[in-house]
Design a protein that fits this description.
48% of the residues lie in helices and 13% in strands. It has an eight-stranded mixed β-sheet with strand order 1-2-4-3-5-6-7-8, with helices on both faces. The chain has a two-stranded antiparallel ribbon with strand order 9-10. The protein is of the alpha/beta class. It is globular and about 80 Å long.
Length: 454
């Protein structure tokens, strides 16, 4: 055997082994994505969740990559020569059936969301039809899942600290901590200073110790299309004082927004706080701890009230007496985040509900392996028994933790639904072009066609 033949043989063997490995991993992850199986180890669950989200939200893309890999093996002659590759090819047929099931299940969300939108239309008088297979732009969105902000001006890394707060943060946690105390503002091109548009104040998740303000998801473009101002906030991820530094940073950012947002066309008296996972927990607490002096050091007299809450996969119960969370979230929160046992109850939104509350919407996937969906069910039930404000709950079929961050049919259906809820409660469906077709129903075309430019 010549050196060239040996090189070709080794290359084909590596390709065959890579294909076999990819096939096995994909099959296992597809099973996990369908069943929502979890381990007792949080870090393992985080990795599984990230991978399963890709399969659940983009199953057709995964199938396409597998087909391309198989075609390459066929063209190079590796497939015919390797029994192992042929065996895993048939395994991938089984995996493809699972991926098709995941794709089909994502459309159960369309039925759920449409049912809610039909109910909402009875009050708002605007009927919204969610897009499906017959929509050209639906396929554009499916085949091009990148979700870049458009038709807006982005003001990045605006500091929200005072000079005294920056010096204190630098002394305790270093210069990097000060750099984390910033926010981004997305201002639609059609909005000018003084327009008094509603503001969506978004806080990212990441277990209070990681994450970035750059991750908002398809909801960002949806709200920009309605001329909302979107503010995305970073906060200190590693601090010697521990939690609730993160919550107090978000209050500092809210203080800044209330003082300055008119310059960007926002209304400081019409702010909806939103977030996912840990960010959802802080969104709920911003509403329930407004104007509490101990959480507003140095700006005790500032108004930090908000008008509404939108939570995605929100952490609403840190106590978890029922032990729904099989990787012991309580110990992790105490040891790595808060350093104090008392914060479990004090900072669990489930136990802070009182008074009238504010209009709220909670969205949670039914196979979330990081934040138990049972906690959100209990939270919503307790909210309805305790508060007089309305609350809407959408439990998303096949949704993993923070599924909404990936641009997919499921996440776009939810983004459209959330945007309609936000517009109904806080903007009266502002600036929407409506075509009356039959005198009884009205169709919002910007929403039906995803808001994606042709």
């Amino acid at each position: 055997m010549s050196l060239i033949d040996l090189s070709i043989y080794l290359a084909r063997s590596i390709w065959a082994l890579s294909y076999a490995t990819a096939s096995l991993v994909t099959m296992i992850l597809t099973w996990v994505a369908i069943t929502g199986a979890a381990t007792r180890y949080r870090k393992v669950n985080i990795v599984l969740c990230a991978l399963c989200n890709q399969l659940s939200e983009l199953p057709l893309s995964v199938m396409c990559m597998d087909a391309c890999f198989y075609t390459w093996l066929t063209v190079t002659g590796t497939f015919q020569e390797s029994l192992l590759a042929r065996f895993f090819y048939y395994m991938n047929i089984i995996t493809a059936i699972g991926l098709i099931y995941l794709f089909r299940r994502s459309f159960q969300v369309q039925e759920l969301a449409q049912k809610y939108l039909d109910q909402l239309s009875k009050e708002s008088k605007y009927w919204v039809e969610l897009p499906g297979f017959t929509s050209a732009r639906f396929w554009q969105q499916l085949l091009n899942p990148f979700n870049w902000p458009r038709d807006c001006t982005i003001y990045e890394n605006i500091p929200y600290w005072t000079q005294e707060e920056a010096l204190r943060a630098q002394r305790s946690d270093g210069c990097k901590a000060v750099q984390e105390m910033v926010l981004d503002i997305y201002q639609p091109h059609s909005v000018e200073a003084g327009d008094d548009r509603p503001v969506l104040f978004y806080m990212h998740g990441g277990g209070w110790t990681m994450g970035s303000k750059r991750f908002v998801g398809p909801l960002l473009n949806e709200m920009l299309s309605y001329d909302w101002i979107v503010v995305s906030v970073d906060y200190r991820l590693h601090t010697k004082a521990g939690y609730p530094t993160q919550l107090m940073d978000c209050k500092r950012a809210l203080r800044w927004v209330k003082d300055e947002i008119r310059v960007f066309g926002g209304n400081p008296n019409n702010i909806v706080v939103a977030g996912d996972s840990a960010g959802g927990q802080m969104a709920c607490l911003l509403a329930s701890t407004a104007n509490q002096p101990k959480l507003q050091p140095g700006f005790e007299d500032k108004d930090t009230t908000v008008q509404g809450v939108l939570g995605f996969s929100a952490v609403v119960n840190l106590v978890d007496l029922e032990n729904y969370n099989n990787h012991n979230c309580r110990s992790r929160f105490i040891k790595e985040v808060a350093f104090h046992l008392k914060f479990l109850t004090e900072h669990s939104p489930r136990f802070r509900l009182k008074g009238p509350g504010v209009p709220s919407m909670m969205i949670h996937g039914d196979i979330d392996t990081l934040t138990p969906v049972q906690h959100t069910r209990d939270f919503v039930k307790h909210f309805r028994n305790t508060c007089t404000a309305p609350i809407t709950y959408l439990e998303v079929p096949g949704g993993h933790h923070c599924f909404h961050l990936i641009s997919s049919p499921r996440s776009w259906y939810i983004a459209i639904t959330a945007s309609q809820w936000l517009n109904y409660h806080f903007d009266g469906i502002h600036n929407v072009k409506v075509n009356t077709q039959d005198g009884t129903k009205q169709q919002i075309h910007e929403i039906v066609e995803w808001g994606w430019p042709m």
